[in-house]
Write a structure and sequence with these properties.
- By secondary structure, the protein is of the alpha+beta class.
- It has 7 helices and 10 strands.
- A 5-stranded antiparallel sheet has the order 1-10-9-6-7.
- Helix 1 packs antiparallel against helix 2 and helix 6 packs across helix 7.
- The relative contact order is 0.21.
Length: about 240
Protein backbone atom coordinates (compact mmCIF):
# COMPACT_ATOMS: atom_id res chain seq x y z
CA UNK A 1 0.00 0.00 0.00
CA UNK A 2 1.06 3.58 -0.63
CA UNK A 3 0.10 6.40 1.74
CA UNK A 4 0.60 10.15 1.46
CA UNK A 5 -0.60 12.59 4.12
CA UNK A 6 -0.33 16.26 4.92
CA UNK A 7 -1.91 18.82 7.23
CA UNK A 8 -1.82 22.62 7.16
CA UNK A 9 -3.29 25.33 9.38
CA UNK A 10 -4.55 27.25 6.36
CA UNK A 11 -4.31 30.97 5.77
CA UNK A 12 -6.65 32.28 8.46
CA UNK A 13 -6.41 30.16 11.63
CA UNK A 14 -3.57 30.81 14.07
CA UNK A 15 -3.23 27.15 15.05
CA UNK A 16 -3.94 23.75 13.56
CA UNK A 17 -6.67 21.79 15.37
CA UNK A 18 -6.54 18.93 12.86
CA UNK A 19 -4.60 15.77 13.68
CA UNK A 20 -3.87 12.58 11.78
CA UNK A 21 -1.94 9.33 11.92
CA UNK A 22 -1.18 6.70 9.30
CA UNK A 23 0.55 3.35 9.35
CA UNK A 24 0.98 -0.05 7.78
CA UNK A 25 0.88 -3.67 8.82
CA UNK A 26 2.47 -6.60 6.97
CA UNK A 27 0.75 -8.05 3.90
CA UNK A 28 -0.17 -4.70 2.34
CA UNK A 29 -2.52 -3.48 5.07
CA UNK A 30 -2.79 0.28 5.63
CA UNK A 31 -4.62 2.37 8.21
CA UNK A 32 -5.29 6.07 8.61
CA UNK A 33 -7.08 8.41 11.02
CA UNK A 34 -8.08 12.03 10.42
CA UNK A 35 -9.59 14.26 13.13
CA UNK A 36 -10.78 17.88 13.20
CA UNK A 37 -10.95 19.32 16.70
CA UNK A 38 -13.45 21.84 18.00
CA UNK A 39 -14.02 23.76 21.22
CA UNK A 40 -11.57 26.64 21.18
CA UNK A 41 -7.90 26.61 20.28
CA UNK A 42 -6.71 24.59 23.27
CA UNK A 43 -9.71 22.28 23.41
CA UNK A 44 -9.74 21.51 19.71
CA UNK A 45 -6.04 20.73 19.63
CA UNK A 46 -6.29 18.45 22.65
CA UNK A 47 -9.43 16.63 21.49
CA UNK A 48 -8.11 15.79 18.03
CA UNK A 49 -4.65 14.78 19.24
CA UNK A 50 -6.06 12.62 22.04
CA UNK A 51 -8.56 10.90 19.74
CA UNK A 52 -5.88 10.12 17.18
CA UNK A 53 -3.60 8.67 19.86
CA UNK A 54 -6.30 6.50 21.46
CA UNK A 55 -7.57 5.17 18.13
CA UNK A 56 -4.11 4.48 16.68
CA UNK A 57 -3.01 2.76 19.91
CA UNK A 58 -6.13 0.55 19.83
CA UNK A 59 -5.62 -0.36 16.18
CA UNK A 60 -1.96 -1.21 16.66
CA UNK A 61 -2.70 -3.27 19.77
CA UNK A 62 -5.73 -5.10 18.37
CA UNK A 63 -5.16 -5.71 14.67
CA UNK A 64 -4.34 -9.29 13.78
CA UNK A 65 -3.53 -10.91 10.47
CA UNK A 66 -6.54 -12.57 8.82
CA UNK A 67 -9.08 -10.75 10.99
CA UNK A 68 -12.64 -11.25 9.78
CA UNK A 69 -14.40 -8.17 8.39
CA UNK A 70 -16.80 -8.27 11.35
CA UNK A 71 -13.84 -8.26 13.74
CA UNK A 72 -12.30 -5.24 11.99
CA UNK A 73 -15.60 -3.39 12.33
CA UNK A 74 -15.79 -4.30 16.02
CA UNK A 75 -12.19 -3.16 16.51
CA UNK A 76 -12.90 0.23 14.93
CA UNK A 77 -16.10 0.62 16.94
CA UNK A 78 -14.20 -0.17 20.13
CA UNK A 79 -11.37 2.24 19.23
CA UNK A 80 -13.67 5.16 18.46
CA UNK A 81 -15.80 4.46 21.52
CA UNK A 82 -12.67 4.46 23.69
CA UNK A 83 -11.60 7.77 22.16
CA UNK A 84 -15.03 9.22 22.87
CA UNK A 85 -14.77 8.23 26.52
CA UNK A 86 -11.24 9.65 26.89
CA UNK A 87 -12.10 13.00 25.31
CA UNK A 88 -15.41 13.28 27.17
CA UNK A 89 -13.82 12.46 30.53
CA UNK A 90 -11.02 14.99 30.03
CA UNK A 91 -13.48 17.72 29.03
CA UNK A 92 -15.64 16.90 32.03
CA UNK A 93 -12.69 17.03 34.41
CA UNK A 94 -11.28 20.36 33.22
CA UNK A 95 -13.68 23.34 33.04
CA UNK A 96 -11.50 25.12 30.50
CA UNK A 97 -11.99 22.18 28.12
CA UNK A 98 -15.75 21.85 28.50
CA UNK A 99 -17.43 21.39 25.14
CA UNK A 100 -14.38 20.19 23.28
CA UNK A 101 -14.74 17.40 20.77
CA UNK A 102 -13.51 16.22 17.40
CA UNK A 103 -14.75 14.75 14.17
CA UNK A 104 -13.12 11.54 13.03
CA UNK A 105 -12.82 9.50 9.88
CA UNK A 106 -10.60 6.43 9.90
CA UNK A 107 -9.98 3.53 7.58
CA UNK A 108 -8.27 0.18 7.34
CA UNK A 109 -7.49 -0.98 3.81
CA UNK A 110 -6.81 -4.66 3.26
CA UNK A 111 -6.90 -6.89 0.18
CA UNK A 112 -8.84 -4.42 -1.90
CA UNK A 113 -11.40 -3.61 0.80
CA UNK A 114 -11.63 -0.38 2.78
CA UNK A 115 -13.28 -0.50 6.20
CA UNK A 116 -14.28 3.06 7.12
CA UNK A 117 -15.65 4.46 10.38
CA UNK A 118 -16.61 8.07 10.98
CA UNK A 119 -18.44 10.60 13.12
CA UNK A 120 -18.88 14.23 12.11
CA UNK A 121 -18.16 15.92 8.79
CA UNK A 122 -14.65 14.75 8.01
CA UNK A 123 -15.02 12.70 4.86
CA UNK A 124 -13.88 9.70 2.85
CA UNK A 125 -13.87 9.82 -0.94
CA UNK A 126 -12.94 7.32 -3.64
CA UNK A 127 -11.32 8.58 -6.82
CA UNK A 128 -11.24 6.48 -10.00
CA UNK A 129 -11.41 9.18 -12.64
CA UNK A 130 -14.60 10.27 -10.95
CA UNK A 131 -14.97 11.41 -7.35
CA UNK A 132 -17.42 9.64 -5.07
CA UNK A 133 -18.15 10.70 -1.50
CA UNK A 134 -18.35 7.54 0.62
CA UNK A 135 -19.29 8.97 4.01
CA UNK A 136 -22.38 11.02 4.84
CA UNK A 137 -21.81 14.11 6.96
CA UNK A 138 -23.28 14.25 10.44
CA UNK A 139 -24.22 17.91 10.13
CA UNK A 140 -27.20 20.22 10.33
CA UNK A 141 -27.19 21.01 6.63
CA UNK A 142 -26.99 17.31 5.71
CA UNK A 143 -30.07 16.71 7.90
CA UNK A 144 -31.86 19.51 6.06
CA UNK A 145 -30.85 17.99 2.71
CA UNK A 146 -32.07 14.56 3.81
CA UNK A 147 -35.44 16.04 4.76
CA UNK A 148 -35.70 17.85 1.45
CA UNK A 149 -35.74 21.28 3.09
CA UNK A 150 -32.70 22.59 1.20
CA UNK A 151 -30.73 21.55 -1.88
CA UNK A 152 -27.04 20.64 -1.99
CA UNK A 153 -26.36 23.95 -3.72
CA UNK A 154 -28.17 25.84 -0.97
CA UNK A 155 -26.21 23.90 1.65
CA UNK A 156 -22.94 25.28 0.25
CA UNK A 157 -23.87 28.76 1.44
CA UNK A 158 -26.03 27.95 4.46
CA UNK A 159 -25.24 30.12 7.53
CA UNK A 160 -25.12 27.02 9.76
CA UNK A 161 -22.96 25.01 7.39
CA UNK A 162 -20.34 24.26 10.03
CA UNK A 163 -22.70 22.89 12.71
CA UNK A 164 -22.14 19.18 13.20
CA UNK A 165 -24.57 16.80 14.87
CA UNK A 166 -22.16 14.09 15.97
CA UNK A 167 -18.60 14.21 17.29
CA UNK A 168 -16.15 12.36 19.50
CA UNK A 169 -16.17 13.56 23.12
CA UNK A 170 -19.35 15.63 23.15
CA UNK A 171 -21.61 13.06 24.84
CA UNK A 172 -21.02 10.03 27.04
CA UNK A 173 -21.85 7.72 24.15
CA UNK A 174 -21.21 7.97 20.42
CA UNK A 175 -22.88 6.39 17.41
CA UNK A 176 -20.38 5.41 14.72
CA UNK A 177 -21.23 4.99 11.04
CA UNK A 178 -19.46 2.31 9.01
CA UNK A 179 -18.85 1.80 5.32
CA UNK A 180 -17.22 -1.19 3.66
CA UNK A 181 -16.20 -0.67 0.04
CA UNK A 182 -14.16 -2.49 -2.58
CA UNK A 183 -11.12 -0.68 -3.98
CA UNK A 184 -9.80 -1.57 -7.42
CA UNK A 185 -6.14 -1.21 -8.30
CA UNK A 186 -6.72 2.14 -9.99
CA UNK A 187 -8.82 3.62 -7.19
CA UNK A 188 -7.54 5.93 -4.47
CA UNK A 189 -9.11 6.41 -1.04
CA UNK A 190 -8.99 10.00 0.20
CA UNK A 191 -9.70 11.04 3.80
CA UNK A 192 -9.99 14.73 4.63
CA UNK A 193 -11.28 17.37 7.03
CA UNK A 194 -13.84 19.99 6.04
CA UNK A 195 -11.03 22.45 5.42
CA UNK A 196 -10.79 20.69 2.07
CA UNK A 197 -14.44 19.94 1.31
CA UNK A 198 -15.60 23.45 2.25
CA UNK A 199 -13.03 25.21 0.08
CA UNK A 200 -12.50 22.92 -2.88
CA UNK A 201 -15.34 21.77 -5.13
CA UNK A 202 -15.57 18.22 -6.44
CA UNK A 203 -14.64 19.41 -9.94
CA UNK A 204 -11.62 21.26 -8.56
CA UNK A 205 -10.55 18.17 -6.64
CA UNK A 206 -10.77 16.06 -9.79
CA UNK A 207 -8.76 18.62 -11.74
CA UNK A 208 -5.98 18.49 -9.15
CA UNK A 209 -5.69 14.68 -9.06
CA UNK A 210 -6.80 13.49 -12.49
CA UNK A 211 -3.26 12.66 -13.63
CA UNK A 212 -3.27 9.81 -11.10
CA UNK A 213 -0.03 10.81 -9.40
CA UNK A 214 -1.31 9.86 -5.95
CA UNK A 215 1.91 10.91 -4.20
CA UNK A 216 1.11 14.54 -5.04
CA UNK A 217 -2.59 14.41 -4.11
CA UNK A 218 -2.32 15.67 -0.52
CA UNK A 219 0.02 18.52 -1.36
CA UNK A 220 -1.98 19.65 -4.39
CA UNK A 221 -5.35 19.53 -2.66
CA UNK A 222 -4.09 21.50 0.34
CA UNK A 223 -2.54 24.10 -1.95
CA UNK A 224 -5.86 24.42 -3.77
CA UNK A 225 -7.77 24.88 -0.50
CA UNK A 226 -5.33 27.61 0.52
CA UNK A 227 -5.51 29.28 -2.88
CA UNK A 228 -9.29 29.33 -2.49
CA UNK A 229 -9.06 31.23 0.78
CA UNK A 230 -7.66 28.70 3.24
CA UNK A 231 -10.22 29.66 5.87
CA UNK A 232 -9.77 26.50 7.93
CA UNK A 233 -7.22 23.89 8.88
CA UNK A 234 -6.98 21.25 6.18
CA UNK A 235 -5.78 17.64 6.29
CA UNK A 236 -5.63 15.13 3.44
CA UNK A 237 -4.63 11.46 3.42
CA UNK A 238 -4.55 9.41 0.20
CA UNK A 239 -4.18 5.63 0.12
CA UNK A 240 -3.50 3.71 -3.08
CA UNK A 241 -2.66 0.09 -3.86
Amino acid sequence: MKIVAKTDKGRVRSSNQDAYAVGEFPDEVAWAIVCDGMGGAAGGNIASALAVKVISDKINASYRENMKPSSIKNMLDSALTAANMEVYDMADAKPELNGMGTTVVCAIVREGTAFIAHAGDSRAYVYDGRLKQVTTDHSLVQSLIDRGEITKDEAEHHPNKNLITRAIGVDKSIEIDFDEIELDDEEVLILCTDGLSNYVTDDEMINEIQDGRYYAFADRLIKKANNNGGGDNVTVVAIAK
